[in-house]
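Subject: Predicted fold for Amino acid/amide ABC transporter membrane protein 1, HAAT family, 286 residues

User T.R. writes:
Posting the sequence so we have a shared reference for the thread.
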Amino acid sequence: MKLLFSVTMNAITVASLYFLVASGFSLIFGLLRSVNMAHGALYLLGAYSGYEIALKTGSWLAGLGGACLLVALVGVVLHQTLVKRLAGDELRQALVTIGFSIVLGDLLLIRYGGATVQYEPPEAIFDATPFPIIGAYPTIRLVVIAVAVVVGLLLWALIQKTRLGMAIRAGVDDAPILGAMGFNVSRYVLAVFALGAGLAGLAGVIGGSALSVAPGEDSRFLLSSLVVVIVGGMGSLPGAALGAVLIGFTEQFGLAFFPNYAILMTFVLMVAVLAFRPQGLMGRAV
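User M.O. replies:
I've generated the structure tokens; pasting them so everyone works from the same file.
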């Protein structure tokens, strides 16, 4: 029972982290129909930049906020210089953003080296919290879960209840008509792209604090985001949440009970979903 409960909590934590990364990817990929294969590199940039800001300021919160702003700004530059110029050409967008991620990853490797970097969050969230059955659980992992829930609710409110959200949803269906009604479609698109990049930066700091930061994490989280979005459905935040939960539980229970087949189980799940619902569990049929 103790092992089962511990694995369940780990699965919820990993699912929360995957959702934080995949939510931004889902916004960009699903709502804007823009292929940003540099999303994993933006996660890594957020993790490293947050670490450096926190180290220099002595404030973990400053590192969190600074990383979000910095990565959002990099996302704006990426969109305006590369992605926007290739609008409608998904293959070229994919190739260009892959190139961007490789360059960014190498620059981070030059700056920080190949060693693993470990955050030092405030003691209040770095200690252990008493927990039933397992005795105690790392507080920082509970923070990951709480942040994911808050971010999910805020994003849902943004998309469903605000003028920006209504414009985004209308633009997905018919951008020319939205522009004809007086909306600045380009500005809304840029805002969503910056938001998605900022969420990658947020996930980088949260994930780096709960786990660690090391070269190669960009590829891992890009792949995880792709699988989560494919399983959940493009452009659906509830789908991203559901996909993250399914992938997180499959991965963690696989590692605990079938370690040799954990990765295979994740992709079997993805193939099974694609076989019965090619648009994802909560995606719209095109």
